[in-house]
C-alpha cells in the first residue's frame, strides 16, 4: 500500500512540474535567484534566453550587439545588412524585396 502512495506522489510531482514548465524548459540559472522555468531557444549546441540574447551567425550574442553596414550601424538581433546594396532591413525582410519605410540606405565606406 505504501508503494502505491509513492507512485502517486511521484506522478503528482511530475504532473505539477509539467504544468509549471509548460512555457519553457528548466535551465541552469544565470543569477543567484532560482528560476524553475523560463523560455529558451537553441543556437547550434547552446541554449539561450531570448529575452537577453539572440543567435547571430551561429553564436549567442546580446540583444544590444551592433555591427557596421557601410557607414551605418545595425542591431544584429533585429536588423540585417544587405551588403550588395548597403541597405539595412528588418531581419524578416528579404534583401531582394523593394525598399520600405523601415529600410535605411547606407553608403560604402572607402
From TrEMBL:
Keywords: Secreted, Signal
Record carries keyword Ribonucleoprotein: no
Cellular component GO terms held in the UniProt record: extracellular space
InterPro entries linked: IGFL
Taxonomic superkingdom: Eukaryota
PANTHER family, sorted: INSULIN GROWTH FACTOR-LIKE FAMILY MEMBER 1, INSULIN GROWTH FACTOR-LIKE FAMILY MEMBER 3-RELATED
Entry similarity comment: Belongs to the IGFL family.
Protein name in UniProt: IGF like family member 1
Lineage: Eukaryota, Metazoa, Chordata, Craniata, Vertebrata
